[in-house]
Write a structure and sequence with these properties.
Elements: E1 2-10, H1 14-32, E2 35-40, H2 45-51, H3 57-64, E3 68-73, H4 77-80, H5 89-100, E4 102-110, H6 123-126, E5 130-136, H7 140-143, E6 146-148, E7 155-157, H8 163-179, E8 183-188, H9 194-207, E9 214-219, H10 220-229, E10 236-239, H11 241-254, E11 262-267, E12 271-275, H12 292-304, H13 308-323, H14 339-351, H15 361-364
The protein binds 3-isopropylmalic acid and manganese (II) ion (MN).
């Protein structure tokens, strides 16, 4: 298969982790006889420095001319610490999501058996955890107007949702649940927010077309407690934009490190794949960032194009690196391995999957999540 991949490494550790994902994709290309082309462009803080724009036209054009986008991370401390900044690196990501028309961000959360002890949760609590978050990506408080009064003393952020924004992601989430454990949890604040009440009405109505899937609707504050007390109770979590962003960060650490979780942003056209972690500027250039989330994002990209065996080979090589403790310091503080080493090991083991039969695909997640 030929796939043209736009690479947007972005800021901070983005370039380092994307370089490892590309190594792995090249190994897949060789092993399975595919043809991938990679073209790199600027986004975020790196783009602002060079072009004064967070999403330059060249970047939009490249993405729209590609089959898929592999994105690293965005954000620089000089902007985080400056509330008066006129252009922010994050705008690049918002504009890109808009340009691609991606409306669903899929974040699978699975626990690697070898990392059970690494989690802040007890092993018994964590066991069997395997869920996927469907985060709405266009609306809510992210999508509305953000204003500051002339005297700088009053700010507003408008949250709005339309039925059609809710229903298109809801159908995707129900279809995914049908192929998994047939349970959906809608997270909202319908005791407070009108947008949440609209979500409940629309999701309940749609649920009637999927009688085999059980729907539960719970408040955000309850959901975040449940995720710590009993994470294995979740299967598909459906959430509006902001709630989905927050809960997926909490979800990311229960597996042991935020550096492990990938995501896919999909819509009707070109899809984008990205680790869920941020730009972690303190680690940039130090060869300590965990490349696994970026590498698993590449595995999701392969799965998106129906390359199941290829995707499994990547996941299996990742599992092998964890098992053999070829990991970055966030996983094992004593580890002497860096970002590059881990990337090399995983890429080399895509070619040599000798003990892949001993891998537990069931528990490593991606194979169970559904990207349509
Ligand atoms: C994410 C990130 C972004 C978001 C930031 C970088 C704007 O946290 O993709 O989860 O909030 O959507
Ligand atoms: Mn986030």
């Amino acid at each position: 298969m030929n796939i043209n991949i736009a690479l947007l490494p972005g800021d901070g550790i983005g370039p380092e982790v994307i370089a490892q994902a590309v190594k792995c994709l090249k190994a897949v290309e060789e092993t399975f006889g595919h043809q991938f082309t990679f073209t790199t462009e600027l986004i975020g803080g790196a783009a602002i420095l060079e072009t004064k724009k967070a999403l330059p036209e060249n970047t939009i054009k490249l993405c729209l001319d590609s089959d898929a986008v592999l994105f690293g991370a965005i954000g620089l401390p000089e902007y985080d610490n400056n509330p008066d900044a006129k252009i922010r690196p994050e705008n690049g990501l918002f504009e890109l999501r808009k340009a691609l028309g991606v409306f669903t961000n899929i974040r699978p959360v699975a626990v690697f058996p070898t990392l059970l002890k690494k989690s802040p949760l007890k092993e018994a609590v964590l066991k069997g955890t395997d869920f996927v978050i469907y985060r709405e990506l266009t609306g809510g408080i992210y999508g509305g107007a953000h204003t500051l009064s002339g005297d700088g003393t009053t700010a507003t952020d408008i949250a709005s949702y339309t039925e059609s924004q809710i229903s298109r992601i809801t159908h995707l989430a129900f279809k995914a649940a049908k192929k998994r454990s047939k349970k959906i949890t809608l997270i909202d604040k319908s005791n407070v927010l009108e947008t949440s009440r609209l979500w409940r009405r629309v999701v309940k109505r749609i649920s009637a077309s999927y009688p085999e899937v059980e729907l539960e609707c719970i408040y955000l504050h309850n959901a975040i407690m449940q995720m710590i007390l009993n994470p294995s109770r979740f299967d598909v979590i459906l959430a509006p934009n902001l709630f989905g962003d927050i809960i997926s960060d909490q979800a990311s650490v229960i597996g042991g490190s935020i550096g492990l979780l990938p995501s896919a942003s999909i819509g009707d056209g070109i899809a984008m794949f990205e680790p869920i972690h941020g730009s972690y500027p303190q680690a940039a250039g130090k060869d300590i960032a965990n490349p696994i989330a970026a590498i698993l994002s590449a595995a999701m990209l392969l799965q998106h194009f129906g390359l199941e065996e290829e995707s499994r080979a990547v996941v299996s090589a990742v599992n092998k690196s964890l098992k053999k403790k070829i990991v970055t310091p966030d996983i094992s503080s004593k580890s002497k391995h860096g970002t590059n080493d881990v990337g090399d090991f995983i890429a080399n083991n895509i070619v040599d999957t000798d003990d892949s039969l001993t891998m537990n695909y069931e528990n490593i997640g991606l194979g169970k999540s559904t990207i349509i």
